[in-house]
Amino acid sequence: MRCNKCGDENPEYSKFCSTCGGPLEQANHPQQNNAPSNIPIQSMNNSHKRNNNNKQGILSIVLGFLAGITALFLRFFSIGLPIAGIILGVKTLKKGQKGLGIAGIVLNIIGFFAVVIIQLAFIGLEAYDITGTLECINYPNNVTDPNEINKLFNGQTIKYQFNKDKTFTVQYGENGKDGYITGTYKKVDVKAKDEAIAYTINMTANYRNIGGKTYNEEYTTQYEIVASLKNKNEYAMINTVSYSMYYCRKQ
Prior knowledge:
Blueprint: H1 41-74, H2 80-94, H3 98-126, E1 132-138, H4 146-153, E2 158-162, E3 167-172, E4 179-193, E5 196-210, E6 213-215, E7 219-228, E8 234-239, E9 245-250
Antiparallel strand pairs: 1-2, 1-9, 2-3, 3-4, 4-5, 5-6, 5-7, 7-8, 8-9
Helix pairs in contact: 1-2, 1-3, 2-3
C-alpha cells in the first residue's frame, strides 16, 4: 500500500506509514458476508411435502406387511390395517410418488386377502369345535363293519361332555353309574391333519368318583382329539400320557 504523503510502500491493511508515520487510506475491500444464503420459501415447502409423501408411502407398505401378521392375533380387527394402507397408498400415488404409492397399494391388497383367507380358515376350524358330548368306546382296531361298531356303542361307553365355559364331565357307564370325573379343559393347539382337524387339549380333573371312591386332588392329562373332515360326527381321542385310544361319535 503506497503512502500518499511520502510515496513509500507499506504492508497491506497498515493504518500508518512506516516511513513518515502519516495515516494511510484503506482500499475498499468487499466485506465477506457470513450470513446464511436465503433459501426460497417455495423450495422449502416442496421439500417438506416430498418428505411427508415419502412417509405416507412407507407407512402404507408397513401396514401391508402387518396386516397378514396381525391377522393371526387380532382376527377380523386386523382388516382395518390393509384398508388404511390402501388409502395412504392412493394418496401417495396422487401426490406423484408412484413407486411408493403402487408398492403400498399392491401390498395392502395382498394383505387384505390374506386377512380374509386366514379368518375363513379360523371359521372352518371352529366349525369342528369340540363343544358338546362325545360318546366313546375303546378304539376298535380290528373291527371295520359299521354294524359291529354300532353294537359296541350299545354296550359300555364313556361320555365326554365339553361345555362352552371350559368345564368338562366324563361319565363311565349309563349316566355315570360306574363313575364320573369333573374338571376344566384348555385348548392348546389346533391344526389341519390329512383329512382331519386335530385339537390338543389339557384336561385338569378336580373331582373323581371311580368305583364308589372319591378323589379330590387335581391332576392334568392331555388328549389329542381328531375330527374327521368327511364326517363331522366322527372323532378319535388319544390320551398322550397313557396312549389310550377311543373312537367317538358326537351326540
